[in-house]
């Protein structure tokens, strides 16, 4: 019995020890949980502060329309406190407009019911602030089922920039459409060639000129307007223009509308865009030039014969000869002249016809003129007749004691001299009111003409300029106005070159006060040199500002490409985690899920797969644009490759009831290419066609080729694209063409496909018309 108390004590001791151990474990566990809770609170605080300072603020809309948001977001919306319901986000001077709120409410309801994501831009009432809202169904772990999570961005500046860009885009599109319509309606034939000098586009005037049915027929049959002349074909002329980097002009005979016409053909290089050309019918101009030449020759012959009135007298003072101008000027009949009247009688006849100057004593005047016969030297006089005629009279005694008198009508010269005086005054007034500085230097270097602007810019004294100084002394006075006085020698040398060597030169100089001028020395037909200066200070500042802006844009584009590549790599790690956890959830690793849960998990996996594909596309596109995309070429059977890619879309095509027809000719053959990359390019084009063709559509894949290249055409009967949409089709950041009214999405398919084809040395082109579908052509070289 003595052992019983000992056993009881042992058991009691064990119980107390176990209780003490349990108490110690509970204390340790509590302290550990407290530490974790404090760490969680600190992390939650940091996350909250980070969220409050982020560029995007969350807004939670519950299924009953109640709101949860930060005070900072309410300040963005202009509210002092958080409205209780989404319908209260509209106020007179705060919140959103009624239309924006109605649209947002519809987007939220649709997101809560279908889980569809949306993006909407709204304007804050009573301010110029613009907000960009991106929303979707909230994660059940964050909010109760049926709640929508909205992320709100302050897009005031970006929206203003977007509106500005939209206006510029609309303006550019209108200008392009107007230019296209103008070219199409132009009466002269116009065309465009690609880099291989093949015709790609002609206008209706070209079609009419070659008697073709349409522009497509002209391009397909390569019908040339101009024939090969002296071994120079139209393609050779285009090549010359491209080689020169400047328009190449030539005048050739061309058949237009069945008639041979002289035309002026001009080929204009457009850089990488190819070569444009146009032909001007100059047949009428050539005919007019020929007629003008014949008229001028006839006129010169006539002027050589009747340039002056000539009369000759014998030693007995009788009239010996006179020409037709003399008879006309003095109104003398041929019968009277045949009587060979003497010199005094001729003067009497002139007086009767009122063809001599007015004199006070005619007999004395006549006697004075009779002494011309005895003069030893030539006598020159100017007669002003009563009718205003100016005659230059030259009397020259002949060795046989006769007299030769020449009457030159100087009326026109006198009028021209008067007009010249008027023109000189007009020129002086014009020069003085020009913005440019004007100065004319003679061949000997003297200053002849200048305007007030010249004297003002160089701060020269008008009185000193009136002495017509030489260029050397004048330039010495002008040098002090320059920022670099030594450069005045360049100006002096240019003036000398213009006068002596007849060479035009130009340059720029900077004045000491900061003004910048563009100057030129131009040789004039009379041997003088024109020196002109134009103030370009303002335009130079604008040019510098534009250059700086361009450099900033280039740098921004480089940063954008680097950012996309880096972000694509950064997306892979979290995306892999999301996909892995979603797959574990779908496989019930974390516990059984409901049917809706499995549906959500599969939706996440599908989105992860598509996002992963998009990331791969971004990486490939960025590498291709940078020229770093690896291409491993091998001989690829193009027929099998196209069939394999088309089979990849069989399920999607069947779901959408799209009719896909393959027309692969044996001439498609094979090519040296990277099978994976080329298949990726073809897949992107087919995927794009399926996406925009829609249900019950039709897609045709045609393949053919020749010795040099293989061609794959992929066409659809979708909605087609406008000219503006086509211009943005290969821009990886442009909005893609509308699939249906109100829908648009950014796409990398066509830009990536084109980069992949270009990496193979080929080309990818797009042809589309609104309502007529789209045709994408892939050209691959055999080697």
From TrEMBL:
It comes from the Bacteria. The keyword Phosphoprotein applies. One of its GO terms (molecular function) is phosphorelay sensor kinase activity. The keyword Transmembrane does not apply. It is an enzyme of class 2 (transferase). PROSITE patterns: HIS_KIN. Keywords: Coiled coil, Kinase, Phosphoprotein, Transferase, Two-component regulatory system. Its EC number is 2.7.13.3. Residues 155-182 form a coiled coil. Pfam families: HATPase_c, HisKA, PAS_7. SMART domains: HATPase_c (SM00387), HisKA (SM00388). InterPro entries: HATPase_C_sf, HATPase_dom, His_kinase_dom, HisK_dim/P_dom, HisK_dim/P_sf, PAS-like_dom_sf, Sensor_HK_Regulatory, Sig_transdc_His_kin-like_C. It catalyses: ATP + protein L-histidine = ADP + protein N-phospho-L-histidine. Residues 566-783 form the Histidine kinase domain. This is histidine kinase. It comes from Parasphingorhabdus marina DSM 22363.
